[in-house]
Design brief:
7-stranded parallel β-sheet; single chain; globular; alpha/beta; 11 helices; 32% helix
Length: 319
């Protein structure tokens, strides 16, 4: 059994172990794979493990019939032509819901950074401004409480639901939009509403929807115009959910107050991305999933998926 991981580095840069995969077959791992290296590295593999490597129909046909299984190191599976894989008898499995807590945590890291401005005030203290201050305290920007504010959650899967529970703990009111019917569960301060109502009435809007033709550019010039000028936008879902130029223009023009983004349309970021220079825009390099505990969970599920497939009981199949 030949197992090849084409995108190993981001999942395991050296602080975790591949031992479980080494026990399952002849295992080779590459840190990262360029498009022109895919065929040479993957040829003859029975099992391919990928993250951002794109496997289109042409490549899959060239790797067939040896290739029988593709294990994704991610929840999203748009990098694989799943229709072609199904036709060629290749099973494709993803990693669902492994990063729920970590992503929700980063959502509130953005929110708290923007509302409490920790970095600005910490730097001010380091610069000696508190030492020279005549008062016992000072603040350089307006600060605000979350209690009583309204958070609007677009998409109410496992991450959106977790964000709602954290928001309720902060004393926030919750509006949620979901294209399918969802239950409130134990949440007490939530209301399911349409998109326009959510945008108009939320102090914070956070995106937790998958990338589909319907959600591409969901946050655009028109949707931003419906938001409060004091609103904060958070996106930890997929970069193309947000129209980057529209958001940059809105931030620079004061049409919304701030944004926190962990994802962009193109990653790594391009130097000409307008959001890199936009006012009050906080960007992290797609790190919501990157905590060691989160990556270990991913690795565990990745191995479990492969073992289940080898035992002829495949799980988390997406095709």
């Amino acid at each position: 059994m030949k197992i090849v991981n084409l995108d190993g580095y981001t999942t395991n840069p050296g602080d975790l172990s591949w031992e479980g995969f080494e026990r399952l077959g002849d295992f080779t791992v590459y840190d990262r794979t360029n498009p022109d290296q895919i065929l040479n590295r993957a040829k003859g593999a029975n099992i391919l493990i990928i993250n951002k490597t794109v496997l289109n129909r042409e490549l899959l046909e060239k790797l067939s019939p040896e290739l029988e299984y593709i294990g994704l190191q991610s929840t999203g599976y748009n990098v694989v032509d799943c229709k072609a894989a199904r036709e060629l008898g290749i099973t494709v499995c993803n990693i669902p819901a492994y990063s729920t807590n970590a992503v929700a945590q980063l959502v509130f890291a953005f929110i708290l950074q923007i509302t409490n401005q920790v970095s600005i005030h910490s730097q001010a203290v380091r610069n000696g401004e508190w030492c020279d201050c005549p008062d016992f305290c000072f603040w350089k920007t307006p600060l605000s409480e979350l209690s009583g504010k309204t958070i609007g959650i677009i998409g109410f899967g496992s991450i959106g639901s977790r964000v709602a529970h954290l928001a309720e703990a902060f004393g926030m009111n919750i509006l949620a939009f979901s294209p399918s019917k969802k239950e409130k569960g134990s949440l007490k301060c939530i209301e399911f509403v349409d998109m326009d109502y959510l945008l108009a009435n939320s102090d914070i809007v956070t995106c937790h929807c998958p990338l589909t033709p319907q959600t591409t550019g969901l946050i655009n010039e028109n949707s931003i115009a419906k938001m409060k000028k004091s609103a904060i936008l958070i996106n930890t879902s997929r970069g193309p959910v947000v129209d980057q130029k529209a958001l940059a223009d809105a931030l620079n023009n004061g049409d919304i107050a701030a944004a926190g983004l962990d994802v962009l349309e193109v990653e790594p970021a391009k130097k000409d991305n307008p959001l890199l220079r936009a006012k009050n825009c906080y960007i992290t390099p797609h790190i919501a999933w990157a905590a060691k505990e989160t990556r270990q969970r991913l690795l565990n599920i990745l191995e479990e998926n492969l073992v289940a497939y080898l035992n002829k009981k495949p799980q988390n199949v997406v095709n």
